[in-house]
Amino acid sequence: MTDSIMSKAATMEIPINSNGDSRTLGEDDGLEQDLQQVMVSGPNLNETSIVSGGYGGTTEGIIPTSSIKGSSMHHSSSSSAMAEEATRGVAVEKFDMMKKWSMNTYKCTKQMISERFGRGSRTVDLELEAQIEVLRDTKRKYENVLRLARALTNHFYSMVQTQHALGDTFADLSQKSPELRDEFGYNAETQKLLCKNGETLLGAINFFVSSINTLVNKTMEDTLMTIKMYENARLEYDAYRADLEELNMGPRDAVTMARIDAAQQQYQVQKDKYERLRSDVTIKLKFLEENKVKVMHKQLLLFHNAISAYFAGNQQQLEQTLKQFNIKLKPPGDDKPSWLEEQ
User: CB of 83 within 8 A of CB of 75?
Assistant: First the structure.
């Protein structure tokens, strides 16, 4: 019935009179009633339902989609609220961290500028700062020793390689020049001996360089890193101390007292951190000095004995020096055999 009615409605013309009223031509009022029934029985666009059995049927089997939408919306809004709460918590935590970092940076920058222009006071440990300055000067001098020792190693290595090549050339000429066989022969043997002793000396110098490098770039650098942390803690401590002193000089109302209590707590935290790092620096400087003396005593003795033995031509003493300091040269077979190993 509905299809026939809609078909009629689609093909009819509804003229409009001058008053704007609609009227039908040659039709009874039944069509208008049928159309009204369709409009009443049809689906509500604002509240759609899943209908079983067509229009005008019983209400059994009609499932309002509003109930389904409401259930899914409830679960969705619940999970969405939890996600928003978690995101809000992370954002608040990051904001607090940023706020704390900004305040700390501001206070430290203000303190640094005040110290630089002579308007602010700073905590000074004269004895400790003198030791720190000595360490920095010592490190610069030891870095120069390390640079020169590496240069000596490179130059001496080049010399040994030249002696190696020269010995090969003398040995070859000894075979091809019968009239000068003996002269080329003992020169080749001399270069062989010098090359062997040079490789032994290189082993001692390399050990010296390695030990100095460890002392300068690891042991001393570790202590200087702790010193840097101590200096930063000192700056923070003075910044919070100056802030507390400034608050104590102001009025004593309820708001100011609350700020003074908070500043006192922060000051105490920074003071404990400063004192702990100062103690760490003192201990590390003490152990570093002991370690430096022990290491350098051994390395300087090694360097002296090895150089003296080499330039004195005392091969036995040179080898004994390496045994004394437990220095082992590269064992044969690790790389390409050297000229000495091929002979």
Answer: no
- Six token digits for residue 139: 């490190």
Q: Which contacts qualify for 142-150: CB closer than 8 Å, 24 or more apart?
A: 142/212, 142/215, 142/216, 142/220, 143/216, 145/212, 146/209, 146/212, 146/213, 146/216, 149/205, 149/208, 149/209, 149/212, 150/209
Look at residue 305 in the predicted model and tell me its pLDDT: 95
Residues of the chain with pLDDT under 70: 1-78, 95-96, 99, 330-343
pTM: 0.65
Closest CA to 320 of 333, 337, 301: 301
Rounded alpha-carbon distances, angstroms, from residue 125 to 109, 140, 244, 255: 21, 23, 21, 36
User: Tokens for 267?
Assistant: 């000051």
Residue for token pair 């091929």:
342
Nearest to 289 by CA among 301, 300, 299, 297: 297
In sign, the C-alpha dihedral spanning 251, 252, 254, 257 is positive
Transcribe 274-332 into DSSP letters: HHHHHHHHHHHHHHHHHHHHHHHHHHHHHHHHHHHHHHHT-HHHHHHHHHHTT--PPPT
Contact 156, 201 (CB under 8 A): yes
CB 160 within 8 A of CB 199: yes
Contact of 195 with 164, CB cutoff 8 Å: yes
Among residues 251, 230, 220, the alpha carbon closest in space to that of 137 is found at 220
What are the C-alpha distances in Å from 26 to residues 4, 12, 19, 29?
17, 11, 20, 10
Note the pLDDT of residue 5.
42
Distance CA 214, CA 209 (A): 9
- Look at residue 74 in the predicted model and tell me its pLDDT: 53
Q: Looking at this protein, which amino acid is placed at residue 270?
A: Q
**pLDDT score recorded for residue 78:** 67
Q: Is 205 exposed, middle or buried (0-12, 13-18, 19+ CB in 10 A)?
A: buried
| Residue 169 CA: distances (Å) to CA of 161, 163, 243 | 13, 10, 79
Q: What is the pLDDT of residues 320-343, one digit of tens each?
A: 999 988 888 765 445 444 434 443
